[in-house]
Structures are given as structure tokens and as C-alpha cells.
Amino acid sequence: MNLGIRAHDIENETITDLAQKLAERDIHTIQFALKKSIKEWNISTASLNTGLAKTVANTLKNSQVDIAVLGCYINMIHPDPTEREQALDYFKAHIRLARDFNCSIVGSETGNVHAEMGYTTDNFTEEAFEKVVESVKLLVEEAERFGVIVGIEGGVNHPIYSPKMMKRLIDKVKSNHLQVILDPVNYLTIENHQDQTSIIDEAFDLFEERIMIIHAKDFVKQDNQIKVVPVGHGELDYHYLLKKIKSTKPMIPILLEETKEPHLSKSMQYLFDIDQTI
Asked: How far apart are CA 230 and CA 275, in angstroms?
């Protein structure tokens, strides 16, 4: 079982400090968001360079920490064209330097038709979907030049709000440099959460071969809404999900989200214990 976390769920002062804290917790796989985990240098499109990337990669490698995915979560369909172009340029800089970070995947969700992120049915239009296709194609073209993967994560807060929409995106872009970050909780609502195993099955049926990263978090129902909670503290059927993963995607990185100390160690052990029973 290849279990890891988002690096920024561990508080750190420097990259060396982060590497040491990960090693102390026996964590060797991470999702790494530059602006959230690099504290000693300013991070921008202009400041990114191969020396910085290799310094980070080597520091983490010395603690046997692997960057499974560079997290570069942007609003790729921002309504302001200038803001959108700047966001896409920032993502492209990650693509160009991904290999220097010893990583081959750069990941993002697909954004929001409004400047403010959050749930809105305005994302569920054909126009919003086509804007996503346009931006993803631009990113994938850059990824193809550098031998890197664009990992797209869907969810109900974005235009790629269902497994079917993710399959449509894959079919439209037509490139193996587009792969999927699957977070089952992202697709759940108060209306469909009882169908979670069917939604998991649908995702695997539609694009199993494209799933490169699994995000793990949990949920409860609260005030007639889905509320995210640490892994093992909610209602996601992890026995079902891990059995599915184990039989179809051996050793795929499974990265905990929204799970920090004092819950992190127990949540990781919760998943390890389930994995031993299936």
C-alpha cells in the first residue's frame, strides 16, 4: 500500500524541516504544493527555476520522500482573461520543471466560472465545460512537450462534476498526457451519498486506466450538507474503495486530504488496518 499525505498538512518552517518531519512519521509519498510548503523562498511563475526544483527534490530524497504529484490548483477558467492566462502560465511552469522535482504529474481541479471558488450550478453548463476543455488542451500540449502528465481532479464544485463529465473531458482532449486524480468524496452530495459505491464503480468503469492518484478523505452529513472530516471519522466505505484499488491499481499513491494531527497517524493506521483485511 502506497500511502501518503499532502505535504502542507504537516506544518513546517523549511524544506529540511518538512523532510525531517515526514521521515519521523515514516511518510514517503506526498502531494507537494509549492506555495504552501516552501517557506524560505518566494514562489511565482518568474521565480521558479531548475536549481530550486532540484534543491527541493534532493532534500526530500535524502529523507526517502517521493513527490507523487505537484499540486498546482488553479482556476483554469477564471472569468478574467488576464487572471486565467496568469494561472495557466503558473501551471505550465510546473510542467516544465516537474522532472527536476523528480515528479511526472502536475495536478489541478478545473476551477469555477466565477472568481470566487465554491459550489454553483453555473459550473454545470456546456459553456463551462468547453472552457475547461480549452484550458486543459493548452496544458496538455505543454505537458506533451516535456513528457509530463496533467492530472485533473473532478468534483461537484467544478464543471467536471461527475465521472461522466470526466470521461467526456478525456474523450475531448484525446491525449494520454491527461490522467485522473480520483477523490470519491468530491463527487458526493447530500442527494447521492448513499450511492457512493455505485459512483466509485462508475469512475473505475469509465476511466480506470487513466486513474493515477487517489485522494482520501471522509465525510459526514451535517445541516443537510456533506461535511469533510478526517479519514476514518466518517461514512466513506473504505473497505469497498481499498478493495477496488487493490485489485485494479496496485501501489497507486493514496494521499490523505483534510487530515492533520492529532488525526493523521490514526487515520493512516485505519487505512493500513483495512488493507490488511482485504
From this structure: 18
- Contact (CB, 8 A) for 106 and 32: no
Residue 273: predicted pLDDT: 97
Domain that holds residue 27: 2-277
pTM value? Answer: 0.97
CA-to-CA distance for 247 and 262, rounded, in angstroms? 31
**CATH number of the domain to which 188 belongs:** 3.20.20.150
Among residues 132, 111, 130, 112, the alpha carbon closest in space to that of 122 is found at: 112
Domains of the chain: total:
1
The set of residues, in sequence order, having a beta carbon less than 8 Å from that of 194 and lying 6+ positions away, is none
CB neighbours of 13 closer than 8 A, spacing ≥ 6? 39
Rg (CA), the chain: 18
Helix (H, G, I), strand (E, B) or coil at 108: strand
* d(C-alpha 234, C-alpha 218), whole Å: 5
Contact 213, 151 (CB under 8 A): yes
pLDDT of residue 93: 98
- For residue 111, the model assigns a pLDDT of 97
Taking the C-alpha atoms of residue 75 and residue 131, their distance in angstroms, rounded to an integer, is: 11
Q: What parts of the chain have a pLDDT lower than 70?
A: none
State phi, psi for 100 to the nearest 5 degrees: -70, -20
Q: Of all helices (H) and strands (E), which one includes residue 90?
A: helix 81-97
Contact 2, 252 (CB under 8 A): yes
